[in-house]
Structures are given as C-alpha cells and as structure tokens.
Design brief:
The protein is of the alpha/beta class and 514 residues long. Helices cover 41% and strands 14% of the residues.
C-alpha cells in the first residue's frame, strides 16, 4: 500500500502529466508504466550485478538484459533483414541516460530504448513486444514533461527490485482510476496465497488478472518455500515457462501484468488478451489447472450469444460474478483448488435460480471448503478526484473449494473477518488488530475448528444444514450473534417524563404570552 512520501511522489508525477494537458488516465498509465518498466529493467540488472560482485564473479550474460557489446536492431524491408541501428547496451540503461538534456533524452528513449523493448527478437524482455504493439511514444513536443517524469522516477525510493514497492505503485495507480477498475489489496492477495500454498510444478491461472498480483505472489511464495528445489534445472524451467497463466481483456492491464511477471523472475508467463468467458476462448484451458486464484469483475453482464456455452451448462446467467466462478470450476483439473473473491449476492441471493444453482454446484458436485466474510470497506480505494473507485464499499466473501465433480462437502468452514489491518474508510490507514494471521492459522488447522462455538470468529457448519437453508452461504445465517440484555425503563416512568415535558412547554408558552 502506497503511503507517506512515496504516495506524494506518485501524485507529483501524476500532476506533471496534468500540467502538460495530458489528462486522460489511460494515456498517463500507458506512458508512465512503460517508463517504469524501462527503469525496472535497469534496477533488476543492477541487483544481479551487485549480488555477483559480493562473491567476486561476473554475472552470466544470459541473466542480463543489457549485455556487453552492442545491441543491433533489424527491420524487415522488402523481405530482407536490414540493420536499422546499433548502440552499446550500456546506453540503453536508465542510469546512463537519465541525466541527458531534454532533447537528447527524448531522442534516446524514442529512437533506441522503445525499439529495444518492443523488439520481438529481444529475448531479454521475453514476449513484451506482443503486449506493446499498440504503444506509441507519447512525449513528442513534451520533452519537458519527459525530463520531469524521468527525474522523479530516478528517486532512490523508486527501487523496483523490491516486490512491495513495485506492486504497490501499480496498485495505487490502478486504484486511482485505470479503466474504472479497482485492485485487490496486496495484503489480501498475500493472505489468499498463504492459505492456498501453491507448489512448484503446479499450473496456476488468474482468468481476470489485472496487474497479475495473484501470480506474482504465488511465484514469490514458491521461491521462498521451495528455494532448494528451484536449483534443479528442469524444475526451474517449468517455473519460468509452464506454471503461470493470466488473462485480461484490457490491453493495458495485460501489458502491465506481463511486465510485473517478468520483473518478478517469471521469465515466460503465458498471458492472453481476451475474455475467457466469451465464445471458445477457454477451450484449450479447460481442466488444465491445479490452482485458480481470482478477483473477477463484479456486477458486469455478458449477452448469452457471446458467452461460452459450456459455462452456461452450470449456470444460465448473464452476470459475470457467477460466470467467472463457473469458469474457474471448469479450468481446474480434478483435485485442483480454487479461491475466488465474490460479491455477497453470489452467496446470499435466494431470489434468482442462477445463484442457487451455482451454490448447489459448489456444495453438491464439488467440495466447498471455506467461506470468509470480509468487511465492506476493503475495496474502498480513493480515486484521484477523491471519490471511491468502482466497486468500493461492496460486501465481499472469499470462497475456497476443491474440484471433485463428485461432491465431498462435509463441513463448511466460516470465518468472520472484521479487521484486515486497515481502516474501512476511503483513507485505509493502518490500524492494529488484523485478523489475517488468525485466518491463515485456523485454515491450516481445520481439524481444530470442530470444537468452536458459533459465537467465535470461525466455526464449521454441516453440509446438511446448508442444504436445509436452500444453500444460502451468508455468514449471518449460521453465526450466533451475541445477545446483549438491556434494562429498559418502565412505561409509567417514560410517560411521567413525557407529561413533565408537556407541562414545562405549557409554562413557557404562558410566560411568552405575558
């Protein structure tokens, strides 16, 4: 989460764009995130070089984005490969051009650095070119703006080798109005991944990935917990190119998500720019995944003619919050695990058959494991204009299940999260007493939950009781709410007070008449 001086610096950069009459949010994000990516490449290499120098060796050229010697850029002209330019790799590094004068800086970035990162043959940046086809340099005749932004991003506080800094900057900008979207808070992503415990070799997908937070945190979790196994060349290869899948139908989001993966050591994430809900886009992915993590769009709709027909066999609806849960069931292989954030209606609505049929699918055909009730203010992210971004304030739940296609639900675990460590107003300032460590601890020891009272923060509910309540999964349907006995004054005492007040009013009126 962006706070303090870093927040002020991001705001100052944003203001620079406004001052130069570049006020369209999507264009600001397009230009700013590309510059951030360029700096991140240099930051990442600097970290590799520093680590190698500690042990007195040179890092392998294969690990470097900016290698020794010269970079050569070719174009195909009339079917022939023609050298357009060559330039020392060193001249493409942020540290070596950030101090150039305005005109030279613009020339270096536009004519050399941008072609470098968009070069489809440049393996050092993976498949970034696939996601940057529509990007065009936006600082023509705005050299002063470019110089200002580069200068501000060069601040030491923008060290993009730090996972939290980079992720939080993205999150803050997205919470500030990118495409009207809002982002999953970083600590909520961390909690989800810690609970689901991704493992090396598993195929993991987020079908509505945004900036790829779930994928990034899954990769980080594996790197921390299976560090030794990652030394194996074959397992490392799978980690780099076979494990992490993402999808977003917004080109900017797909590009940002891809950049985020590359800079968190996922060298070849499989990212697509489309909607897996539509047509046959998901046909090659059905039944392929061990883990699905998602926070899909709420309150969207999709016309039936455009919706993947296979999804509609489970839930016949236009509502995206239902379609995405159905999609994740289909993406999972038997035995795979799913965790999704859903709006309260998915678990509470009893008036529409589509909601009930989806809950029946989770309870009766799959193995529903847990339901976490989250406070309404978790997604209250402020926009640049001070209002709440889309989706703010909505009541949400986490659902956790395993795909079996043969049932298996016995007891469903409920947790009443009341504190996520931040205030529930739009400011979201840090507070004490977060429930997150307790949630993770209890989830990892579900066998200990059997003895808990329903007055506790968490408890188990037998599946038959859920069926008897028409598959409603709202926490308050099962939790014993504390009853506070209060003493009330007698009717006679209250009436006497009322009469005394009437008499006082009469006396005042009489005095006024005098």
């Amino acid at each position: 989460m962006i706070l303090g001086s870093l927040k002020s610096k991001i705001d100052a950069i944003w203001q620079d764009f406004y001052n130069e009459n570049m006020a369209q949010t999507s264009e600001i994000v397009n230009q700013l995130t590309t510059l951030m990516f360029i700096k991140m490449l240099d930051d990442k290499q600097a970290a590799v070089e520093a680590q190698a120098s500690i042990i007195g060796v040179e890092p392998p050229q294969s690990e470097l984005t900016f290698k020794g010697g010269k970079y050569k850029y070719y174009e195909m002209i009339n079917g022939e490969k023609v050298l357009r330019f060559e330039i020392p790799y060193a001249d493409l590094r942020w540290r070596n051009f950030k101090h150039l004068n305005a005109e030279d800086l613009a020339t270096r970035i536009k004519n050399y650095v941008i072609p470098f990162i968009k070069d489809p043959n440049n393996t050092a940046v993976g498949k970034f070119a696939d996601y940057a086809k529509k990007y065009t340099f936006g600082f023509d005749d705005k050299e002063r703006l470019l110089t200002s932004v580069v200068d501000k991003l060069s601040d030491d506080e923008f060290d993009f080798t730090q996972t939290d800094v980079m992720g939080d900057v993205y999150e803050y900008m997205c919470g500030s109005g990118i495409s009207g979207q809002y982002r999953t808070p970083r600590h909520i992503i961390d909690m989800a991944v810690e609970m689901m415990q991704p493992r090396l070799g598993e195929k993991i997908i987020d079908p509505a990935m945004g900036t790829a937070g779930f994928l990034i945190e899954s990769a980080r979790y594996i790197q921390l917990n299976q560090e030794t196994e990652l030394l194996n060349a074959q397992k490392k290869k799978k980690f780099n190119s076979e494990m992490f899948y993402g999808c977003d139908n917004d080109t900017n989001m797909a590009r940002i998500g891809y950049m985020n993966c590359i800079l968190h050591n996922i060298k070849s994430p499989i990212i697509s720019i489309d909607s897996l809900l539509e047509h046959e886009n998901a046909k090659d992915l059905i039944g392929k995944f061990d883990l699905v993590l998602q926070n899909p769009p709420f309150s969207g709709s999709l016309v039936e003619s455009a919706t993947n027909g296979q999804i509609l066999t489970i839930t016949k609806t236009k509502r995206t919050e239902l379609l995405f849960v159905t999609l994740m069931i289909q993406l999972l292989k038997i035995g795979g695990r799913g965790m999704s954030i859903v709006p309260s209606g998915v678990l509470e609505n009893s008036n529409e058959n589509a909601y009930t049929s989806l809950r029946k699918e989770l309870v009766d055909r799959q193995k529903l494991i847990g339901v976490i009730s989250m406070p309404s203010g978790i997604f209250a992210a402020p926009s640049k204009k001070g209002s709440s971004s889309k989706g703010a304030g909505v009541k949400t739940y986490f659902i956790i299940f395993q795909k079996t296609d043969n049932g298996g639900t016995d007891n469903v675990w409920f947790y009443d999260m009341q504190n996520d460590g931040f205030s529930l107003d739009v400011k979201r300032t840090p507070i004490e007493g977060t429930d997150i460590p307790d949630i993770i601890k209890r989830y990892k020891h579900l066998s200990d939950e059997k003895s808990r009272s329903r007055k506790d923060k968490s408890f188990l509910v037998p599946v038959d009781e859920i069926r008897a309540k028409n598959y409603i999964l709202a926490l308050n349907e099962y939790k014993d709410m504390p009853y506070c006995e209060r003493e009330h004054r007698s009717v006679e005492e209250i009436f006497a007070d009322i009469m005394a007040t009437v008499e006082q009013e009469a006396e005042l009126r009489d005095k006024i008449k005098l």
